[in-house]
Amino acid sequence: MDTKVYQIPCAIDREDLLARLHIKPDSSYIGKVDQLIDEALKIGKPKIAYKLAFVDDKGDDFVVIEGIRFSSRILRVNMEDTFKAVPFVVTCGTELADWAQGYPDTFDNYIADGVMEAVLRSALEKSYARIDEEFNLGHAANMNPGSLPEWPLTEQEPLFQLLGDVQGLIGVELKSSFLMSPIKTESGIRFPKEGTFYNCQLCSREDNCPGRKAPFDKDLYKEKYLKKD
Predict the structure, then answer these.
(1) C-alpha dihedral, 161 to 167 to 172 to 176, nearest 10°
(2) In sequence order, what are the beta bridge partners of 78?
(3) Scanning 8, 76, 128, 196, which has the fewest C-beta atoms within 10 Å of its C-beta?
(4) First-residue to last-residue Cα distance in the chain
(5) How far apart are alpha carbons 152 and 175 in whole angstroms?
């Protein structure tokens, strides 16, 4: 199946943004925040590139999707019961990235960065719902290259290869460092999966991580993902 492109409605959860920026509703900075929110909503064009793909082969610690190998024991185990996968790249968009560069002042740039992050969060929620409905995934989970040592950032390369010309489609460039530009972009593979899985369950970073979706489970890797002799 060819890679699809969809422009996602630009949205921002203002209350959540203020909480993440640690700005109180009665702060003297509210005017500046609202100004940047209004600008972003007019300019922002978040987008997703995605496709339905199928697994060709599975080994102990790899999955082959449409002839492209992804090396990860955790991905392999999580995809045990499915041959359906949806690789994706979701971005806040080059329009907002260019807009944010117009705010070089440290504090203004801090707000602009938070606004772009808020747009990406909203775009991701809408993208997951769209993917699940369009491809009838039912209960689904994600894995993202670089989110865990067992699936490093270098796995961005096969993911982009699977999707094709991502930069031409939605303006997202994969750099030689395997980071993406615009920086407020998320890539991954979404797949049907019974039960709950979040990358965070296997991540031992501090629990105050702003992106944490689930607590670290110190026994999960050993119980589920460690190779048995």
Answers:
(1) 60
(2) none
(3) 196
(4) 38
(5) 15
The SS3 assignment for 43 reads: helix
How far is the C-alpha of 81 from the C-alpha of 21, rounded, in Å? Answer: 40
pLDDT band at 148 (very low <50, low <70, confident <90, very high): confident
In this structure, the chain runs to a length of: 229
Which amino acid is present at 52? L
Q: How many CB atoms lie under 10 A from the CB of residue 130?
A: 16
DSSP element (H, E) containing 98: helix 94-100
Q: What is the pTM of this model?
A: 0.88
Other Cβ atoms within 10 Å of 98 Cβ, number: 11
pLDDT of residue 1: 79
Backbone torsions φ then ψ of 155, nearest 5 degrees: -70, -5
Q: How far apart are CA 208 and CA 22, in angstroms?
A: 14
SS3 58: strand
| Rg, the chain, Cα only | 18
pLDDT per residue over 30-64, tens digit each?
Answer: 999 999 999 999 999 999 999 999 999 999 999 99
**Residue in 157, 127, 120 with CA at minimum distance from that of residue 142:** 127
User: Which tokens sit at 35?
Assistant: 């100004």
